[in-house]
């Protein structure tokens, strides 16, 4: 299997509109971050998208991706769901509704934001989704076992997802001891890290991530959901402890 980072930025993306800091004006492609999303390719070459934000169209085109077999949604914030309408060309081409897997609460929000996709009589050109409400327990889809990992993002629960010995977690500020058990003995752990300093009410910052790395001891840890406050990629990546790396858009991992 493999995982490709389609986007590694926060809800504002990097560069941030109107910002002239050294990160936002950097010419290094690794400092340009679309909203966070990944594509997992299974051993049978099926495509599992995790989150579908406002940059979905651009991400698919830039990465030469043509299909989405299913989508896993972490939570209902717009930077993770608002691109769902842009799945229309894939739906038209396949002639099938795209299966979405998410919390009951998230399914409710998706129906509210895209009511035309769930109308009894849809107008021509509307997207179509097949909603699957999941709980915090492993499930099987596309011959792949997926284990949700429940984390806390400010005051809401968010799902991360684990495949084999890789786990992807975005928009987390707290992980319970019970859920940490799912994250031990991993080859790859991917965690959100919004900035280096100043505690955030909803996201991990760098000291939090380093503590989790030391506690959980994955072989490798990659940071995602990165803001311009974390610093320049080429400088900050070299200063991280061994085993911790900054992810960047287009990075591909085999697992």
TrEMBL record:
SUPFAM superfamilies tied to this protein: Metallo-hydrolase/oxidoreductase
Protein name from the UniProt record: MBL fold metallo-hydrolase
Keywords on record: Hydrolase
Domain Metallo-beta-lactamase: 47-226
CDD domains attached to this UniProt entry: metallo-hydrolase-like_MBL-fold
GO MF terms, alphabetically ordered: hydrolase activity
Family matches, as Gene3D superfamilies: Ribonuclease Z/Hydroxyacylglutathione hydrolase-like
Organism: Chryseobacterium pennipullorum
Membrane-spanning ranges: none
Keyword Ribosomal protein carried by entry: no
């Amino acid at each position: 299997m493999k995982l490709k980072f389609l986007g590694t930025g926060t809800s504002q993306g990097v560069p941030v509109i109107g910002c002239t800091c050294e990160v936002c004006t950097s010419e290094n492609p690794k400092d340009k971050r679309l909203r966070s999303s990944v594509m997992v390719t299974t051993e049978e070459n099926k495509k599992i998208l995790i989150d579908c934000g406002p940059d979905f169209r651009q991400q698919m085109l830039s990465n030469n991706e043509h299909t989405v077999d299913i989508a896993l949604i972490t939570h209902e914030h717009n930077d993770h769901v608002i691109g769902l309408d842009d799945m229309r060309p894939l739906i038209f081409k396949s002639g099938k509704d795209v299966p979405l897997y998410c919390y009951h609460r998230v399914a409710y929000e998706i129906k509210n934001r895209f009511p035309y996709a769930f109308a009894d009589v849809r107008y021509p050109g509307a997207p179509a989704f097949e909603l699957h409400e999941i709980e915090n327990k492993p499930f099987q889809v596309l011959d792949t076992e997926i284990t949700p990992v429940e984390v806390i993002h400010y005051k809401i629960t968010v799902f991360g997802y684990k495949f084999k010995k890789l786990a992807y977690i975005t928009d987390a500020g707290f992980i319970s001891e019970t859920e940490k058990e799912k994250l031990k003995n991993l080859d790859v752990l991917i965690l959100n890290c919004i900035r280096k300093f100043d505690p955030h009410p909803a996201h991990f910052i760098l000291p939090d991530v380093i503590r989790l790395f030391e506690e959980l001891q994955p072989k490798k840890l990659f940071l995602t959901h990165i803001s311009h406050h974390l610093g320049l990629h080429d400088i900050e990546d070299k200063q991280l402890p061994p085993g911790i790396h900054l992810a960047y858009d287009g990075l591909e991992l085999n697992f």
